[in-house]
Design a protein that fits this description.
- The protein is of the alpha+beta class.
- It has a single domain, classed as Alpha-Beta Plaits, CATH 3.30.70.20.
- The chain contains 2 helices and 5 strands.
- It has a 3-stranded antiparallel sheet.
- A hairpin with a 2-residue loop joins β1 and β2.
- The N terminus is likely disordered.
- It binds iron/sulfur cluster (2 copies).
- The site of one iron/sulfur cluster has 15 residues, from β1 and α1.
- One iron/sulfur cluster (SF4) binds next to β1 and α1.
């Protein structure tokens, strides 16, 4: 289900988990809401192994999520999610530079104590 990026925030949802998304120099986090149906589709698509099944629904490790920066032009989890339960979270913003630094750290291209999460 490759397609347009999901936008908007599902307010009031519980069990949210952050991932990263956005455009240009300003990027926003994404959250997986409790609308997740545990379909298992997103986990293998993540190039950073940031997605894992949590106690109830799938979760994303924000320290490993780069919004797919360095791998793809669009967040792969958003592209494949069949129920569009990974909306934007305007409360969490990271710069694209920070995402790039995180990508480099995950790839072992910079020291592990790099300030990028
Ligand atoms: S697929 Fe991309 S956007 Fe989704 S959690 Fe993994 S790195 Fe983040
Ligand atoms: S693709 Fe969407 S519904 Fe399926 S496990 Fe991932 S977040 Fe949940």
């Amino acid at each position: 289900m490759k397609g347009a990026r999901t936008s908007g925030l599902h307010e009031g949802s519980e069990g949210i988990h952050r991932v990263l998304s956005g455009t240009d120099n300003s990027v926003m986090a994404l959250i997986i809401t409790d609308e997740c149906i545990n379909c298992d589709v997103c986990e293998p698509e993540c190039p950073n192994e940031a997605i894992h099944l949590g106690p109830e629904i799938y979760e994303i490790d924000p320290s490993r999520c780069t919004e797919c920066v360095g791998h793809f032009d669009e967040p792969q989890c958003v592209q494949v999610c069949p129920v569009a339960c990974i909306p934007l979270d305007p409360q969490h913003v990271e710069s694209r530079e920070t995402l790039w630094q995180k990508y480099q750290r995950l790839q072992g291209l910079v020291p592990a104590d790099s300030p990028a999460r």
